[in-house]
Amino acid sequence: GTPQKYDPTFKGPIYDRGCTDIVCCVLLVIAIVGYVVVGVVGTYPWAGGGSRAGFRPGGKRGGQLRCRGASCPPARPVGDRSGFAASRHLPVFSFPIQICVSKCPDRYLTYLSAYGSRGPAELEYYRQFCVPEFKNLQKPPIQVLKDKECPAMIIPSTPLARRCFPAIQAKKGVIMVGNETTYDDGRGRRRNVTELLEGAKKANVVLETRQLAMKIFEDYTVSWYWIIIGLVIAMVASFIFIVLLRFLAGIMVWVMIVMVILVLGYGIFHCYMEYAKLKGEAGSDVSLADLGFQTDLRVYLHLRQTWLAFMIILCIVEVVIILLLIFLRKRILIAIALIKEASRAVGHIMTSLLFPLCTFFLLCLCIAYWASTAVFLSTSNEAIYKVFNETACQFSGQTCKPETFNTSNVTKLCPDAQCLFAFYGGETAYHKYLIVLQFFNVFMFFWLANFVIALGQVTLAGAFASYYWAFKKPDDMPAFPLFSAFGRALRYHTGSLAFGSLILAIVQVIRVTLEYLDHRLKAADNKFAKFLLSCLKCCFWCLEKFIKFLNRNAYIMIAVYGTNFCTSARNAFFLLMRNIIRVAVLDKVTDFLFFLGKLLIVGSVGILAFFFFTHRIKLVQDTAPSLNYYWVPILTVIVGSYLIAHGFFSVYGMCVDTLFLCFLEDLERNDGSAEKPYFMSPNLKKLLKKTNKGQPEA
Questions:
Q1: What DSSP string runs through 397-449?
Q2: Mean pLDDT of 467-478
Q3: pLDDT on residue 424
Q4: Which of 98, 323, 432, 616 could form a disulfide with 75 if both were Cys (CB 3.0 to 4.6 A apart)?
Q5: How far is the C-alpha of 100 from the C-alpha of 175, rounded, in Å?
Q6: Three-state secondary-structure class, residue 177
């Protein structure tokens, strides 16, 4: 805590500490070990019994991978017309004939015509579009089609997104496939190729999307270095803005306040002029009560009473703002002084501006591990095959094995039955508890992500606290304040960070669960359940916001005093409640400055990028690259500039919050005496008319 007697070598309360919340630290380590085990279980088939379905091809055919059974995505439909609208997300059994082929068919041909041809070439060509097990070319065509070993017909197709789609083209407004307007469906009927148009439309969507992606990729390849230059400009602009806040914060705040007062004054004047202009006009004296509710809101603008109400409301707001300025002027000056002091602190700890990159990198690791674990767990099931048939069969829906299905009793009792892929699943204990592992994966993601954010916050808070509690700034600061704060956080307060992030993770998991339930209940007609769910979502949203606010300030107190999480949260909360007006004023002033900074940086860089990439700057008109879509690099620069500005201002915001809490603690714990001197800057002491009696000023 605060020293009993002033010592010139004393550097504030941030160095006197011990380990906190050790139990939570142990729980975090155990949870991380369990998380690694879950990742291993989901990755290796021998650990979880998974077949790695969807990641392992079965064999080769025609020089390309041939998909078999559970290891194959829905294969390319080559025969029946119902398959041409295929989506790779549909189950395998939604298409009559499905195989992986080395190339798509290039001609019209039916199995009957191929079988009846004189030479074997046609049938050999056709056989590559049959199931791999089909070997008997002398088998009667009716039996082949009944057993669904070959498609009834094939048509000219083109490969697209690993699928074969009809080669549809338009000639003089006529839809054709392979220079034909009709085709034989293999069952003795002629069909119009327009029946394939629906599937072709979906294929065109995929093709257009692919072409769009290729053009966007081309734009990135020729403009990436200019994009980087734009982001560097945003970074420099963000840094300059933070530096200028030391000199311009007061001017910007007071200009904003004066502008608000002037705008409200003009609004009052405009309302009075409209009120006077309507005097004597027919129907303008009708009261709002007599007029009642009108859907056309413009009707109200023709009433004098409407403009009178607007004028009264604006006058009240104007008076309230002026009174607040009169009574809160000193608190506004304190907020401005703290913002200026934060700019000085950031200037002395320049490495803090780069620290968000470390937090971002750790968050990317958390996201990558969570995503890979989720994918591996979801695909570690075994392929389940079921019996499907068109007529009544006692074995319908039962599990089957494709390898032995043709020799089983099922085909004898139900000739039209087929053993087709149904879904991924399993009967083992691992598969039964797979949903639990997925839930644990989500929970650990939130816990670790919040822990990384907490580590970043307490590190920045510790660095800026070392600036505030340095009696002689910056001489009494440690050589490397950011690295010292990072080391203290990991060495002493890992448990406290785990505790705070655990509470937040529990609330976030509950919110995710409520969103999932809300999604499932959308089709239901239970209004009470929907109302209750909406109330719960609102309550937990508010709870999450409050916990984030409390955690942020608790981490600052942990960085300053080294107390455990609960003590720090309690002390921070009551400290802020005792200074609630100062908190509100500082919060609104900093929010305005950050909004203005982001608007200026993103807007200026975005406008510069627009003029550059649209060749409107004559000096560099020939330097700008030629693009398919100029909005691609412009949007990239705008989004990147916002993220950079947000990163810079998040550091600055943490600095302001830390200095503010240290300032409140300084006021409450110290009195300026020789035993308890103030640590605040000379500007703050001058503003508050405080002095350190008998001690040299910093």
A1: T-EE-HHHHTTSHHHHH-TT-EEEEEEEE-SSHHHHTHHHHHHHHHHHHHHHH
A2: 82
A3: 64
A4: 98
A5: 28
A6: strand
How many angstroms separate the CA atoms of 589 and 328, rounded?
12
Outline where 13-106 has alpha helix (H): 22-43, 45-48
- Give the dihedral sign, CA 655/657/663/666: negative
The set of residues, in sequence order, having a beta carbon less than 8 Å from that of 694 and lying 6+ positions away, is 673, 674
**Following CA atoms 654, 655, 661, 667 in sequence, which dihedral angle do they give, to the nearest 10 degrees?**
-170
How do residues 555-606 score in pLDDT, each as one tens digit? Answer: 999 998 889 999 999 999 999 999 888 888 888 888 888 888 888 889 889 9
The CA distances from residue 253 to 250, 430, 477, in Å, are 5, 61, 30
516-530 pLDDT per residue, tens: 888 888 777 778 888
Mean pLDDT over the full length of the chain: 79
Q: Please tell me the distance from the alpha carbon of residue 339 to that of residue 593, in angstroms, as a whole number.
A: 10
Report in angstroms the alpha-carbon separations of 113 from 53, 584, 611: 38, 84, 64
End-to-end C-alpha distance for the chain, whole angstroms: 21
Spatial contact of 150 and 90, defined as CB atoms under 8 Å apart: no
385 φ, ψ (degrees, to nearest 5): -110, 140
Angle among Cα 279, 284, 288 to the nearest 5 degrees reads 130
- Give me 161's structure tokens: 């997104």
Query: In this structure, what token pair is assigned to residue 593?
Result: 């400055």
Q: Report helix, strand or coil for 165.
A: strand
What is the separation of C-alpha 139 from the centre of its chain, rounded to a whole number of angstroms? 57
d(CA 482, CA 463): 5
Task: Work out the pLDDT band at 67, boundaries 50, 70, 90.
Answer: very low
Q: Per mean pLDDT, which range of 206-210, 370-374, 479-483, 653-657 is the poorest? A: 206-210
pLDDT number for residue 427: 61
What is the predicted pLDDT for the residue at 6? 39
Contact 449, 361 (CB under 8 A): no
Dist. CA 134–CA 105, nearest whole Å: 18
What CA–CA distance (Å, rounded) separates 536 from 532? 6
Annotate 390-403 with b (16+ C-beta within 10 A) or e (fewer).
eeebebeeeebebe
Query: Contact 554/450 with Cβ under 8 angstroms?
Result: no
| CA neighbor of 557 nearest in space, from 464, 461, 645 | 461
Tell me the pTM. Answer: 0.70
Domain boundaries, the chain: 22-40+223-373+433-688, 96-180, 384-424
Average pLDDT over residues 593-620: 86
Q: Is a pLDDT exceeding 50 seen at residue 403?
A: yes
Element (H, E) at 250: helix 197-277
Residue 62 burial (C-beta neighbours within 10 Å; 0-12, 13-18, 19+): exposed
Highest average pLDDT, of 16-30, 62-76, 330-344, 499-513, comes from 499-513
Contact 583, 576 (CB under 8 A): yes
Beta carbons within 8 Å of 495's beta carbon, 6+ residues apart: 19, 20, 21, 22, 23, 24, 25, 26, 28, 564, 565
- Residue 689 is classified by DSSP as T
